[in-house]
Amino acid sequence: MTENSYRVAPPGFTPDQWEEFQEKGILVVENAIPQEDVERYIEAIDRVAATDPNYAPGKDFRQPHCVAADPVLSELIDHPRHVGYGYDLYGELLKLHRSDIFIRPPDYKDESMWHPDSPRPTPYAVFSMDLPLRLCIGLWLTALPHAGMGNFIYMPGSHRNQEFEQYYTHESVPGEVPLVVPAGSMTVMHCGVWHRVDVNHSDTIRKNMFVSYCPSWLWEGDRRQCDPQWIETLNREQRIIMRSFPTAHDRTNPPAEDVPLFLARETGTDSDADANFRIPLRIRKRKTMPEKLAS
Ligand SMILES: O=C(O)CCC(=O)C(=O)O
After folding, report:
1. Percent over 70 (pLDDT), the chain
2. Ligand 1 in contact with 195 (CB < 6 A)?
3. Is 260 inside any structural domain?
4. Is residue 202 part of a domain?
5. What number is the average pLDDT over the span 114-119?
6. Which SS3 state, helix, strand or coil, does residue 137 take?
7. pLDDT tens, position by position, 132-168
8. pTM tops 0.70
9. Which of 71, 168, 180, 210 is the one with CA 20 to 30 A from 229?
10. Which of 61, 112, 118, 180 to mutate to test the pocket of ligand 1 (most atoms within 8 A of CB)?
11. Is the beta carbon of 211 within 6 A of some atom in ligand 1?
12. How close is the Cα of 191 to the center of ligand 1, in Å?
């Protein structure tokens, strides 16, 4: 494969977004998803739910590893609308950590209490204070014009705290923000942001998806290995980002054919300008976006 046949990394954080993300731990991008995609994703969610023996209409539903559950959802693995945010943080070792469908029906009682994303007893922040080791993209497919609709509720700036007085309660906290957004909005969230889920007193069924990314050496959150036949259906970047490896060693040392994942956005090349070109591409260091900003 020649360099030209690799894809350039899709856009990620703008400088303003990166500043806001560092301050609040979350970005809310309204109208990020076109209406036709909102409709396609809702149809796919409904197809997946309809064939799941655990789904009952009117009941709460969560489907992990949803990118493998329907071909329309597989496109979320490397979707240019959001994959660049993950690539900015995890660079050439980007991996899809987990993907979930959520259906929060009327009368949903906030089972999801205040928490940051796992792990909890020894959070990732113990090791990585500034950069999240998980980045969660939220795709909000139902209009949420007010609170009390099973909204996602978060505490801006809380990604800097490993303790939270209301942890594992449903208590309302001064400063909390219920996500009130039009259908087709996207969130980009640091895994350390404390959040909970609101009750749903409306007659609207809230449907959304989470697609999370991490470095490839971190354990994936919703699978061990992927079905090889499903992997065959994916494009090159999707296959790489799923990181479905036969050996644990591959997690830290991906095979040569998986490098580069993407070409650099700024230069269209597979290496940093100041790289050590004596080193084989497979193991040549490449900077992530925060490293580039710092250098
Ligand atoms: O249903 C939701 O909005 C979020 C669920 C949740 O808190 C989580 O998966 O960590």
Report:
1. 98
2. yes
3. no
4. yes
5. 95
6. strand
7. 999 999 999 999 999 999 999 999 999 999 999 999 9
8. yes
9. 210
10. 112
11. no
12. 11
